[in-house]
Amino acid sequence: MNRVCKALNIKYPIIQGPLAWLTNAKFVAAVTNAGGLGTLGPAAGQNERFRDPDPVKRHAMTVERMRNEVRKVKKLTAGTFAVNIIPANGGNDGHTKPLIKMMIEEGVPAAVYTGSEVYPEIFQMLKDHDIKIIYRAQNPTASNARAAEENGADVIVETGFDEGGTLPKQVVGTFSIVRMIVDAVDHTPVLAAGGITDRRAVKAALALGAEGVYCGSVFIASEENRTAAKVKQAIVNSTADELLLFRTKPAYYRSLPGPFADHLQELSDQGVSRDEIGKVMGGLYGLKRGMVDGDWDQGYVSLGTGITSIHEIRPVKAIIDDLMAD
């Protein structure tokens, strides 16, 4: 049996990326019910940012909203799903530990741990309660992969520059980084991420030693995803060579063209600092405006280079069946 499937108790070795604002219970359950592993992103099911000046209250409200979404998922599937955690400051960021506490209370089966720093205390909190750990470095290296393995990661996801969302600092393609990490770890299965949108890419990843795939963009163009219909249609109608690439904090971002994205590209071409472009960009809230609201005057549309192979809007099950067909 495939080691990823065995570790996570899933049918197919395919994990859906957290996708920031673009997930909710309906979508995540659809991925899990189709045989993959669905993941609730950090703003799952939410529509607005919390603006309370008290950070403790903000974190508490965010965790409770996530709790509600977790409960909805559990009503829609009996399968394995995950919640995304993004630890900072050793996990003492005011959000990570309350979020994990909620996951323990609600019996969440798995966590997608996003972050280049491996915090042993956070790994141990999860392992003590049998929460499976899917480790995904924002800037993958052989060193942080080995650290994740030493601390008990169940699966290691290695992301190449082909991905959508916040891009790695290193401009290294998916298939190069996967080979490097497969050779760097001793016993933990590795998943390939970045540009995986059809069965050919899956077969190539497996041929290089990956034991599964971690996908984002291909699921955005699904019927169940909460992304605006105009964005899904734009994905179908676009190819990778139309994507804009601009500097921002912490490194780079991609977007389909649009008034706001074009402006970000211009600032980048003019040499405006990453910090300043990041402020204009509005962080992940700009993604919400562009992709959930469909407002390209105030938001951007983040995608990976694999969009060339996305030719129609399909149900999640059809996407997974096609990716795993061979």
Automatic annotation (TrEMBL):
Lineage top rank: taxon: Bacteria
Q: Which InterPro entries match?
A: Aldolase_TIM, NMO
Matches recorded under Pfam families: NMO (PF03060)
The record's section on CDD domains has: NPD_like (cd04730)
- Alphabetically ordered keywords of this record: Dioxygenase, Flavoprotein, FMN, Oxidoreductase
* An MF annotation (GO) of this entry: dioxygenase activity
Q: What's the stated role of this polypeptide?
A: Nitronate monooxygenase that uses molecular oxygen to catalyze the oxidative denitrification of alkyl nitronates. Acts on propionate 3-nitronate (P3N), the presumed physiological substrate. Probably functions in the detoxification of P3N, a metabolic poison produced by plants and fungi as a defense mechanism.
- PANTHER family, sorted: 2-NITROPROPANE DIOXYGENASE (PTHR32332), 2-NITROPROPANE DIOXYGENASE-LIKE PROTEIN (PTHR32332:SF20)
The molecule here is called Probable nitronate monooxygenase
Could you tell me which species this protein originates from? Answer: Limosilactobacillus panis DSM 6035
- Which taxonomic lineage does the organism of this UniProt entry have? Bacteria, Bacillati, Bacillota, Bacilli, Lactobacillales
